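As a warm-up, study this chain.
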Amino acid sequence: MWAMVAAVVLAAGASSRFGSPKQRLLLRPVLERVRNARSVEEIVVVVGAHEVETDARVVRCAAWERGPGASLRCGLAELAPNAEAAVVVLADGPSLSPEAIDRVVEAWRKRAGDVVAASYGGNRGHPVVLGRPVWAQIPDEGARALEPALVPCDDLGPPGDVDTPADLAGRARDAGAE
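Now compare it with the structure written out below.
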């Protein structure tokens, strides 16, 4: 029996360092990458501070200001009852590799643990897979508080982390250099 895996895309933050709703710029490419992963059957986008236009299913989290864990809990609560795990993806990581999603899901399927995270250069990153048994344990600071099994994804490149307009400009320069 194949375990159903869903994705929770966190897009609820205020984008205060960015100065405008960065989710509106970055969500579409992130969703495209999630959809290109073979292991994800359902996608939920969690919004809070800003509304976004998307063709994905959106969940509004009134408690988003409490932290990423509150947003994550909102998304997990809306997943199908048969979802056995959730891939957590950040809406500000536009270079996320679909293969990284599939790799961490595969490690979870092979029983690496109920918390499995991609690593880059030995450092924990995204995506993160959470098995259903840990969903009730998510604190307000988010899944970062849970100890993961790490799955090296160095060959796939990190998902990126766009916090400021300069980060986005730097990504555009880097893309032009390739």
